[in-house]
Amino acid sequence: MDRQTSHLWLKRCLYVFLALLIMFLHLLPLDTQPDRWPFPDMLIALTFTWVLRRPEYVPIFLVAAVMLMADLLLQRPPGLLAALVVLGSSYLRSAAPGMRDAGFMAEWTTAAVVIAGIFILNRVILAILSVQQAALGPVVIQVVLTIAVYPLVVLLSQNVLGVRRVSVSDPDTTGARA
Known about the structure:
The longest helix has 25 residues, at about 5-25. This protein has six helices and no strands. It is an all-alpha fold. The radius of gyration is 17 Å and the shape is globular.
């Protein structure tokens, strides 16, 4: 196996490890009192950051498997949020090549619109199916916090994990699917 392939699989394994770590920390009982503020959905922020920065690190089947596992572990309706995140990831994957020259604000705005759309569609579909849902206030706060934490996830992914935006001059991106 050559260096590029092993690096690609290393980053994919790192994504799975980070996703499992986020789920573990979400399930870990640190306090018996209910939280005053909902926690931002770090898994969606991480997934969208990596999809916009390096789409080859998070293939669709990996996003689907991780999000389905999160649905099952976090006791959400199985497959609904996973399907919505896969659709959002597919859209962002198709928009990623056009964002190479755009600034960070355009990337953040696009990710924010997709995150808001996912949460809105999730609530609408659950309402149509008459599934009991959380109150609207905490969900709106979670959406706002997820959008607000996105730059931090980008900063950590870029500076600590080395997930940088694809540029045309990168020698290791020749032949990679965009």
